Amino acid sequence: MGRENVQGVPEQFIDEKDSARFRHLAQVPGVELYHAHISRYAFEPHTHEAFGIGAIEAGAERFSLSRHAVRGPRPFRRNHESR
């Protein structure tokens, strides 16, 4: 995916392990495609003009939505490990 300027996303992250690539498809207006690895960067409150679907491959996500904190799923536990 090519890099586009997206509001609120720095051109370069401070932590070299953090990265994000964004793309919009002309065939599917109103949808954002993105692939990111962000472990240390914290985004300022912002909005998106398009609809996005995310998948967490590792770790977790935390964000606020209308003054309510929302946390992403806990990491998958193999063999029914206890919490």
TrEMBL record:
Q: Taxonomically, which superkingdom?
A: Bacteria
Q: Which GO terms describe its biological process?
A: regulation of DNA-templated transcription
Classification via Pfam families: AraC_binding
What region holds the AraC-type arabinose-binding/dimerisation domain?
29-68
Keywords on record? DNA-binding
Gene Ontology molecular-function annotations: DNA binding
What's the protein name?
Transcriptional regulator, AraC family
Q: What is the lineage of its organism?
A: Bacteria, Pseudomonadati, Pseudomonadota, Gammaproteobacteria, Enterobacterales
